[in-house]
């Protein structure tokens, strides 16, 4: 048994993370925190979790008594909490963007000043399908953004094979991706029966996708545009690739088969995936298509933005860090 | 007054077309037809139309006694009906694909054998913003497909200006686009909380978009992928353009302003459009963005697939054909 | 022409009211007000209205220069505005509860202190189907609540005929009924795929329903429970009546036929109504059923809570007050 | 280990039943059947199940080799299959209505001729909270209907205490309750943004509710009306009770507390339950309210119609029949 704290458990991803840890055979959920809802029970705030723990205020001397923590806070406020936890020897999976980027300048450009500069760049990028071995011994794992998770699983095989010439990523997400804060954009009347592009040209997941594609061998500038669609959980990445070189369908099929046939949480399909097929799961469903008319490669990847895009992937990482089966507690 | 018949009034687009004609100050709705629901009243089948007419079986000797007809039938079965109407001197707006394409080979490739080969290619493409003057005297107007309507309004200014180098069109449509037939894909449980790409590489609106972009000066092969999203009516086209030449933001703004500032049914906006903003209207909302990072031009266009994408655009065409104000009966 | 101001035009009902007045052949929309969004244009805040007027701050000396005003403000803050408008001779349709009740004690119990006690009780209850003649000359018309509108249209014929022994009203409303304020209850993630009873035992429309049923001849205590359902606009009242006396189906049918056959905005149907059938309209759809097994009478009434339940009914009242055809501008 | 067959696994409830058995630590899912989709894999037809078994055609000599079967077929066709399974010694949980009723005349009135008259009435009514001890040794368990499950859990404590004088049950269900057959009623465009009463006066769950309330001590004729609401899974029963005798709030609270405080799958709450709180679970959430104004007792019960209303309750019953912990495999 290893003890775990979940910071920010009143958010959507944090609540699911707490639920998964609570049900987990190996981990013991010891603390859950929330800022404004401290004192309430998590199963009152989020009934579906059925986690009967009281939400606590954040105090490193209280929650720092654990083996591991999942930090589900926004960027910039997350880093100091991670630092405080690390100072107490706690191993951390951080769900914010604070430890994902490795270039201080890029972080500064897209996010501003970092909250724990001495730890900057020390996170291992927590996409198990790409960095499994590095994650195991890591003390700080930077859980990927939801869009980068789907985009990188879709494109990494092409990047590694030198096939990724140029790419347009059109992404669609359910409303939970906009967070739990009631705003005019998350009001039912705004989102229902609507769909709309948002953060055109400037979504913060862009540099993260570019950094990791470069790490896989394809240093390029990507076009990435997210859209809000009227559903609760689910994310679809449609990637339109201009290939960098000649290839045929067999090579393409072999590349993806090699990458994912043995991956427990990636499902390679012939037809395009729907987000409902992966709802409330850690799965990513993928399909790859070679368009003879245009010469483009099309890749579609569907995940649940709160699960594989956040909470369940964090637990997948936690499993790796503590030597457990990667899938424990996730089925 | 001019008398009008609506063929196929029990479908989603046909019902709205009938409603718009019925309410129209100049046109008189004389006949509505339906195959399997003949004998029922339209306002029982589609209460929201409030059209108290009985649905008739198609008989050219009955419905042929009108000045104009809107034919809301599927491709291939539409052409013979159009021929029969033309033989009786009826002016026709055809909502199928049968008179949109001008290359017999391309029609055959994507649709099969044409149902009235002697009339092939005689339709004027009914996108008023591009072909207003040709529509006025036309006897057959080929009402554009829903995706081409949005895609062409989004891209025509770039095509005409020699800016359209390459384009990826990612389109999203509400479920009414899949038609009124109950299928496993249109079942509430399949569509609700889901989104999924469909007809990847082979949607029939592709050659129509390519034909009309070529007509505007940009002969290219487009990548076009539609997605089904969980809402009733609404269509969003996200177009990712690789420019064919240097340009600046001022030129871009001037191009769209020149194209659309005086158009009654195109709304140019600074921020990206949502489909709810055009629901149940003949409007197309557009925004254009020049992405400095990637050099791409992004254009977003939102329409109601059943209105500007079908029924209300058909009435807009009818207005032009009969010398009426283009917007009559549409506000 | 008569000039009109709409106060509170940034709310859902206010925006539709403004749109209907703006499109109306007889009325001229001169002012629209909003508290926090003053300075913005209404068609930017609510694009679907297409009303290109600037939202103003409330100032009786500015907006008081009109012939009529629709006041779309919450109870208690509405009354003083109505008083200020009346002092300037403006005829008012008030959409709040402030002028609906006629018993000061009941108002105090359910709403608290009244904001213009000198005018208390001077409103004519604005349900045209019941009070048409009294509305015509009225200077203050109290537009009914959405639930009372549907409930009273459903039950008035029974009340008048001495048939209403006891009644359970189970009501369901779309999320727009909860207002435009972003709250945790109106967040898409809370409302989507959910339904939940609310304000059990204490919804403020209860005394309004009881007052008006008593006025129709049935003084009784009603059980009324509203539920929130995941749709934008639409309200369904299911009324379960224990008859006060013997009756047969013919009498029942005759009662409703007599009440509504000539009403332009009530649609009597054999089968139960769906809210989609009346979406974006001023219609109320009704069905009445006599259950032989239980002896109960069941009445179902569907309206659009923002239209017949608020904005379009306000315009219907305005038409009556200004001697226009009751339906002008509403089709 | 005990081996299990699920008949009718391509339906919504059957697919979930198969998934739950497949994941269950004690049961082994050996067969899944489907009529029209035999030959396909269940995880292709219903990806969310992740059950990699091939759907078989029904053949008692093939699927009869198991210890237990869950029969997820419609009424009337279910009974002969149950008979064939019983002839082979298989213990059965039947999800149809065929073994729920104990009066042949009532069955004939509501359902027609029974498909296995020699077994009529031999089922134990499978609501564990009422019949736990009788279910354990049973060979045929008649899994309750979804509406009766919620209605009986809501009302049984009142029935037993002699408090149930009269009751109106207004029920609301998500669209999955209408089955997987694509029909005009289950088309997304019909159900989305709509709600409508259905089977007014004649829903077949009525006699089942009456039978079981009588068994609990309250023989009465109930008014029961279901409504279709636009969500996938979830059912809410709103019960309006006229008490048969004097009582106070303390007695009421004590009754429900006594009935459910130790029940693992009933959650008693102070505020009214939402269906989202029990989505994808075996829980029933309940609240009881004593309305001082009207003297009525209000009870609200929320379940997932496919889980506690069908599939997971069937597994709960199976657990009891095989001496397992009632909750095994359900959390």
Which key phrases capture this entry?
331 residues, 11 helices, 7-stranded mixed beta sheet, alpha/beta, globular
In words, what does this structure look like?
4 copies of one chain form a homotetramer. Chain A is an alpha/beta fold. The first copy, chain A, contains 11 helices and 14 strands. The two termini of chain A are 19 Å apart. Chains in contact: A-B, A-C, A-D, B-C, B-D, C-D. Chains B and D meet through helix 8 of B and helix 8 of D.
Short account of what is shown:
With 331 residues, chain A is an alpha/beta fold. Chain A contains eleven helices and 14 strands.
List the helices and strands and how they pair.
The structure is a homotetramer of 331-residue chains.
Chain A: E1 2-7, H1 12-23, E2 27-33, H2 42-45, E3 55-56, H3 60-63, E4 68-71, H4 78-87, E5 91-94, H5 104-111, E6 124-125, H6 128-135, E7 140-142, H7 146-160, E8 164-173, H8 188-191, E9 196-197, H9 205-215, E10 223-228, E11 235-243, H10 249-260, E12 266-268, E13 284-290, E14 297-303, H11 311-321
Parallel strand pairs in A: 1-2, 1-4, 2-3, 4-5, 5-7, 6-7, 8-10, 12-13
Antiparallel strand pairs in A: 8-11, 9-10, 11-14, 13-14
Helix pairs in contact in A: 1-11, 6-11, 7-9
- Percentage of residues in DSSP E strands of chain A: 15-25%
For the terminal residues of chain A, how far apart are their CA atoms?
19 Å
Oligomer: homotetramer
Let me know the number of strands of chain A: 14
Choose one word for the global shape of chain A. globular
Describe the largest sheet of chain A: 7 strands, parallel
Secondary structure: helix percent of chain A: 25-40%
Radius of gyration of chain A: 19 Å
Q: Name the helix and strand elements of chain A from N-terminus to C-terminus, one letter apiece.
A: EHEHEHEHEHEHEHEHEHEEHEEEH
Instruction: Please state the structural category of chain A.
Output: alpha/beta
Mean pLDDT of chain A: 97
Summarize the largest interface: chains and residue counts: A-B, 44 and 44 residues
Number of helices of chain A: 11
Low-confidence stretches of chain A: none
